[in-house]
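Service request form, structural biology core

Requester: graduate student, group of Dr. S.
Request type: structure prediction, single chain
Budget code: on file
Notes: please return the result as structure tokens.

Sequence provided:
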Amino acid sequence: MRFLIDQKLLTSHPDTMLGRMFAMRDARGAGAELVTPNERDEFVVADGTTAACFRVALEYYTHGQMRCPPNISVAELRDACDYLLIPFNANTVK
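Core staff response, request fulfilled:
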């Protein structure tokens, strides 16, 4: 599954993994080695995280909170948040 995400949305949360990665890419220029697009000019991030779980994690970037739906376990969302460096607490998870 593909997600189209404005890079500014990610960099507006600099303490997260994606925020850091894309901020470093901006600081180092389009050829930054840490974050490089694939042959389709896409970035592959959160490998191993399900699309459904990644979609929930993206809610943090857009709303500052995430709602854990019944089809995703709290443990799965917590693991994704740990990997993505997204805060997982009573203020961010509903």
